[in-house]
């Protein structure tokens, strides 16, 4: 029998997920405050970028987990997880914009155009903004269910762009292990969706 939490249990689960999702940021902030990293800017930039990808993967994993486990309630965690992906992406962009360019928009845009891996990452971040901005119930009602769903399918583009950004960034050090692992996870999560969509169409055609 699938686990079906009560409203109180679900509230407790949401609170626990919120705290756990915030821990990486708190850990990074604490280590920087204690002057542990030799290169604090690089530490923050890499850390926030990594956790952006992790939360994109976790967000994409919600639907497969629901379908495979029968835990329909996990869908209620997806919005929070997606917002945490944006939160870490915003911190990642802030590190780039603030510490690298000191809020110089012209210098930042020049760097975006000059370096392809930054271009791809910037595009992925820009595409995340409307998803975060329309995450409320009021925006769902305003856009309508179908248009909202189509808009939020941008995550299927954002995740591969994020991995490409990660891949090109690691290419400078010829270190592809992490991008390959994250890429395989995203490929699996997106592949399951393609498979289920194809199976649904096949079943409907037979019916």
Total E-strand runs: 0
Averaged pLDDT, please?
91
Portion in beta strands: under 5%
Major β-sheet profile: none
Distance between the termini: 29 Å
Rg, Cα atoms, Å = 19 Å
Kindly state the percentage of residues in helix: over 70%
With helices defined by DSSP (H or I, 4 residues minimum), what is the helix count?
9
- Order of helices and strands, N to C? HHHHHHHHH
Give the overall form. globular
Class computed from helices, strands and strand pairing:
mainly alpha
Are there runs of 5+ residues with pLDDT below 50, and where?
Answer: none
Main attributes of the structure:
207 residues; mainly alpha; 9 helices; globular
Commentary on this structure:
The radius of gyration is 19 Å and the shape is globular. By secondary structure, it is mainly α. The longest helix is centred in the first third of the chain and has 30 residues, at 40-69. Helix 5 packs antiparallel against helix 8 (155-171). The chain is built from nine helices and no strands. The two termini are 29 Å apart. The relative contact order is 0.10.
């Amino acid at each position: 029998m699938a686990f079906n939490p009560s409203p109180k249990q679900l509230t407790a689960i949401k609170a626990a997920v919120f705290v756990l999702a915030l821990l990486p940021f708190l850990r990074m902030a604490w280590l920087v405050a204690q002057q542990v990293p030799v290169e604090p800017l690089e530490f923050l930039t890499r850390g926030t970028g990594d956790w952006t990808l992790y939360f994109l993967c976790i967000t994409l994993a919600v639907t497969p987990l629901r379908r495979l486990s029968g835990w329909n309630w996990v869908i209620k965690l997806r919005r929070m997880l997606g917002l945490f992906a944006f939160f870490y992406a915003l911190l990642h962009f802030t590190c780039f914009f603030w510490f690298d360019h000191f809020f110089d928009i012209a210098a930042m845009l020049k760097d975006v155009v000059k370096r392809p891996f930054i271009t791809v990452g910037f595009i992925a971040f820009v595409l995340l903004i409307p998803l975060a901005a329309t995450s409320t119930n009021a925006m769902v009602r305003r856009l309508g269910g179908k248009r909202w769903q189509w808009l939020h399918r941008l995550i299927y583009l954002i995740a591969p762009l994020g991995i490409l950004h990660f891949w090109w960034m690691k290419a400078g050090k010829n270190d592809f292990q992490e991008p390959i692992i994250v890429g395989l996870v995203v490929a699996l999560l997106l592949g399951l969706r393609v498979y289920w969509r194809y199976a649904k169409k096949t079943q409907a055609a037979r019916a």
